[in-house]
Amino acid sequence: MAPAAVPNGEALAANDNITRFAPPSRAYTPQPDHKLFHPKTRCFVYGMQTKAVQGMLDFDFICKRKQPSVAGIIYTFGGQFVSKMYWGTTETLLPVYQSTANAMAKHPDVDTVVNFASSRSVYQSTMELMEFPQIKSIAIIAEGVPERRAREILHVAQKKGVTIIGPATVGGIKPGAYKIGNTGGMMDNIVASKLYRKGSIGYVSKSGGMSNELNNIIAQTTDGVYEGVAIGGDRYPGTTFIDHMLRYQADPECKILVLLGEVGGVEEYRVIEAVKSGVITKPIVAWAIGTVAGMLTTEVQFGHAGSFANSQLETAAVKNQSMRDAGFHVPETFEDLPAVLSKVYKEAVSAGTIKPQHEPAVPKIPIDYSWAQELGLIRKPAAFISTISDDRGQELLYAGMPISDVFKDNIGIGGVMSLLWFRRRLPDYAAKFLEMVLMLTADHGPAVSGAMNTIITTRAGKDLISALVSGLLTIGSRFGGALDGAADEFTRAYDKGLSPRDFVDTMRKENKLIPGIGHRVKSRNNPDLRVSLVKEFCQANFPSTKLLDYAIAVETVTTSKKDNLILNVDGAVAVCFVDLLRNCGAFSAEEAEDYLKMGVLNGLFVLGRSIGLIAHFLDQKRLRTGLYRHPWDDITYLLPEMAQGSAPGQAQRVEVAAGDVK
Amino acid sequence: MSAKSILEADGKAILNYHLTRAPVIKPTPLPAQTIHNPPAKLASITFAEGDNVQGVLDAAEATYPFLLAPGAKFVAKPDQLIKRRGKSGLLKLNATWQEAKEWIAARANKVQKVEHVEGYLRTFLVEPFVPHPQETEYYININSVREGDWILFYHEGGVEVGDVDAKAEKLLIPVDLKEYPSNEQIAKGLLSKVPAGVHNVLVDFISRLYAVYVDCQFTYLEINPLVVIPNADVTSADVHFLDLAAKIDQTAEFECGVKWAIARSNAALGKPAVASTDGKVNIDAGPPMEFPAPFGREMSKEEAYIAEMDAKTGASLKLTILNSTGRVWTLVAGGGASVVYADAIASAGFASELANYGEYSGAPTETQTFHYARTVLDLMLRAPMHPEGKVLFIGGGIANFTNVASTFKGVIRALREVAPLLNEHKVQIWVRRAGPNYQEGLKNIKAVSVELGLNMHVFGPEMHVSGIVPLALVPGKYHEGIKEFEG
Fold first, then answer.
1. Is the peptide bond before B23 cis (omega within 30 degrees of 0)?
2. Whole-number pLDDT of residue A2
3. Which of A462, A589, B122, B407 is 20 to 30 A from A47 (CA-CA)?
4. Residue B22 three-state SS
5. What is the Cα–Cα distance from A240 to A232, expressed in whole angstroms?
6. Which chain B residue's Cα is nearest to A302?
7. Contacts of A136 by beta carbon, 8 Å cutoff, 6+ apart
8. What's the CA gap between A534 and A611, in Å, rounded?
9. What is the pLDDT of residue A257?
10. Considering CB atoms only, which of B144, B320, B437 is closest to A375?
11. Is A304 one of the catalytic residues?
């Protein structure tokens, strides 16, 4: 599976690192009934549990399996065809099926399923899975399956001869061969408990969490686990101790049995009967946890749903005594179990029933990137940096301010803008000014180019975003751009120390219009109220309005030439905004210039006008207006007359005046 | 989440509502009932701590108008999962509402000892008194086992029924309802000691009762006495469940929640339709099912706090206070490991000193672990000092996926906040934990114990899961030769 040599030394393509597995060339020899799992077991995982699947594949890999145990994923909400997984350091593609029937048909070699469906849906999915005769065992992971449904499942399973492990279990493990779902924990624990190679001890535990502990105990005191099953903590597990104990008894490779029972239920007694009647002859080391229950004055429901004694027989103390009486090796306390197990193991070794095997080399498994990062073992430069908001913690942060404080302090949209645009709280008057600009620029009637575009797009039947964007795309140096231009020109003149009259004169000499000066209808005698509002607010609240004062002086010069050359709303907003950046105290001089250069003023206009453009979209939709077609008679058609063959570039030029109106 | 006991009032409300509605599994000998039962007369009266008892009783009159019916006689009893109430004098029979009120007022919010458990009486049930001849009393019990559901029936009921396990007639209904017994089989299996004349009526009732049991996912149901008074031509009967105990399967909430709720809605209980006072909207037609704590184990503020936190996350956080002045406290991760720890403490002879049972698991966040640990530590340090000091086990098995270092950060934060008190109370701390990144977690907690001067012993996976318990509690078990975790 090594990637093909790359001729010209180019980097590996992602595709070169993918391992593909061929389907089996022939059907496998059937396994004896007691071998539920073996090194060629193939399964489906029901549910999109990529972490568990990866764990299973990693386990397969360190067990030196030729093929992954997971043949595919069944995910009914699917849509995805393959799921990419690691196979050692390479990658492999696992098929994802939306229908169970399809998956079964594609993989006749699969005979077991790890069912991760939720407690609500596990009943239906398990019943469906059991309809396929190829399925011999199903592990049900979900906790909280209704007891009646669990009993119905186990009833059908019994009739069909399907082995159910669970519900409410982590699953089970067959070292060196197959691992159900998340059993055994993470890789380093699996390696520490030597689960990559088989031992001689078979265990059945009720609790999944404690099965991890058993793996550890068995690895420390014996030659290791042969097979382990956690039957689950519910009242009605699909299979119980006896089912697996009988399998271990029948399996010649399993030498010592371990049973970890629990208070509640009577399933341990069936193992006792099997020992008494001579069906089980191998040594059993056993313990029932929950001995404390009898010593407490009140009833306590322990962690597991089934761990509740309804009669004396179901208490852990009576179970332990009964098992001891039947000849099981039962320690005095659970803490003594390792010592007892070790003794039984040594006896088996000296009797020759167990021959400790040569220890294979400890396999290596690459550590997952995300885990290594969590452990602080590796670092990597990030491709993106963001300094304004953070959604990872308990609460969304805007420039460090928790969203709950945003509302508690009632900072308004201007406050949010100051946090996200400038990464700082600006004084209240500044936030108010930003809001004022948004309100003033929100709309300027349907006739301006942005609104027109939005209206036409809307009438063409397009959606909100298309209509809004088509309007926004008109914003530039001609439409809406006067803000940036005005700020730029006025600031430059002011900073150079030009007197207002010099400034006006220079501009005229350069044949340039002064952005922010002039209005189609308003004049000195008929002032624009919007401008008055801005002026009054800034004069009342800003610490300094030097540039505004300068602009007003410029207006005095220009209006003396023509009455309608007044400081318009763009000009007023632009110069006031510069005053704000320079004088509110929150920005250094460099920062203020930087923000202006970035075009933040245009941002204000885009944001404000979006309100109006959306309004025009809604308006047109509300009116149910139809597709717009511009009348022919409103278009002058001037086409080159081919016959006369006018020289290139000599076509008649049409001067169209650029309107300065928004 | 498991099979849980419910209030008698709720059990009766569910039966009353669904007896005529739940689909029977096979046709019964009687024609299907066309009229549903009238609303159940069940006055459930609850007193919170500090409530004005008289005020609550007066309010009950408004909620349950049937209490004021002239000449009516009632039964009053506490409804708090107490067994054998009659024997403890907790049953007031054949009382007028005035008498019942006085009887309740004398007991409400007072401590009561039942057998060897003490607890506050908070919830009472008042319902109409049903005079009936002795021979109409029966005993019935349905309970679930692996193979199916047992129905136990005995032709005599009442407090003195005796050992029903031995003498009742029994019939196992298999899990697969296609194998449900015929009417004849039911009569033969359960009613051999009952006059044949009432067989049809009883078979009909048993079938309906079982239908409700299945439909509403009960796991246990006992009615004793059950009173069945047939009408003159034995085509129907008046059925009264005088005393009822039931468990339902809490995990079936997603299937049965609607049915549990509607049976307990205002309309089904004949309550006047009052606009709900707190403006809360229920997700079903009635209130969500309540699962009361066993008698004598009211949830403390801290337990309620942990339960609330538990309900809000995918992680599992459990806390039960067993003895708030106990010397031995546990802070154990994992459902199985927590039981193992309690076992070990009990078998070391400290059952009576075991202060709490609890566990945290399922990868709780650092903050959740902090609040959990902080609550346990607060409880431990609130109890008076003990001359021999206290013992705290910070234990757990080998975690599957929980990052031990990160949950331990929460525990460490909690330890830091109370460090001086820990030493003042002479608390010995024993730590054992393993699983992902345990090395880091153990190293950190050890460093903190050195820094804060705590009396702490730290162990990793080389130590048996609960091996630290005998070391801490059994004299002579711990010696210098036992190797602790090295950073």
1. no
2. 44
3. B407
4. coil
5. 9
6. B339
7. A36, A111, A112, A161, A162, A163
8. 20
9. 97
10. B437
11. yes
List the single residue in B249, B435, B440 with the smallest CB-CB distance to A146: B249
Kindly state the tokens that stand for A50. Answer: 């990529």
How much is the pLDDT for B273?
A: 67
**A155, A298, A335 ranked by CB distance to B464: nearest:** A335
Q: According to the model, what pLDDT value does residue A660 have?
A: 47
Flag the least confident range among A14-23, A55-64, B205-214, B454-463: A14-23
Runs of H (alpha helix) within B111-160: none
Q: 């705290």: which residue's tokens?
A: B392
Q: How many Cα neighbours within 13 Å face the side chain of B486?
A: 2
From A107, A304, A329, A519, active-site residue = A304
The two tokens of residue B329 are: 């406290």
Neighbours of B151 (CB within 10 A): 24
Cβ distance B351 to A296 less than 8 Å, yes or no, reads yes
Adjacency order of strands within the sheet including B74-78? B43-46, B123-128, B74-78, B92-95
What token pair was written down for B259? 């049915």
Sign of CA dihedral B185, B189, B195, B198: negative
Give A328: exposed, middle or buried? Use CB within 10 Å, 0-12, 13-18, 19+. buried
**What Cα–Cα distance (Å) separates residue B391 from each residue in A119, A656, B424, B426, B484?**
39, 91, 13, 8, 18
What confidence tens digit (pLDDT) does each residue in A423-479 have?
999 999 999 999 999 999 999 999 999 999 999 999 999 999 999 999 999 998 788
* Cα A628 to Cα A619: distance, rounded to the nearest angstrom: 15
Distance CA B271, CA B265 (A): 8
**SS3 label, residue A50:** helix
Distances (CA, A) of B8 to A1, B78, B149, B244: 68, 9, 21, 6
Contact B344 A213 (CB under 8 A): no
Q: In this predicted complex, what is the ipTM?
A: 0.90
Under-70 pLDDT residues of chain A: 1-15, 27, 298, 303-307, 643-662
Which residues does B290 contact at the CB level (< 8 Å), separation at least 6? B6, B7, B10
More confident residue, A242 or B364: A242
